[in-house]
Amino acid sequence: MSSLPLPRGYFRCPPLSPVEVDDLLATASTACDDTLRNALSMAATTPARVLRHPRTQRYAT
């Protein structure tokens, strides 16, 4: 039984092909663009509701 964190090289994974690397980088870039676009659109609008947790008193918009 291994303990966490696992040691470097614990998993023996084959290297990614250049096509797989390009695909993963394109997916990551799209995810970053979508996240940024979503954050900017959320910042431009007013919140519909503001909630407060009764125990922690933290707000969520």
Notes on the structure:
It is a single chain. The chain has 61 residues and is mainly α. 43% of the residues lie in helices and 7% in strands. The chain has a two-stranded antiparallel ribbon. The longest helix is centred in the middle third of the chain and has 26 residues, at 18-43. 0% of the residues are buried.
Order of helices and strands: HEE
| Basic shape | flat
Give the % helix: 40-55%
Q: Compute the CA-based radius of gyration.
A: 21 Å
* Strand adjacency order, main sheet: 1-2
Instruction: Outline the biggest β-sheet.
Output: 2 strands, antiparallel
The overall pLDDT, averaged over residues, is 91
The number of E-state strands comes to: 2
| Quaternary organisation of the protein chains | single chain
Question: Low-confidence spans: pLDDT under 50, at least 5 residues?
Answer: none
Q: Which class do the helix and strand fractions yield?
A: mainly alpha
Tell me what portion of residues adopts beta-strand conformation. Answer: 5-15%
What separation lies between the terminal Cα atoms?
Answer: 43 Å
Total DSSP helices: 1
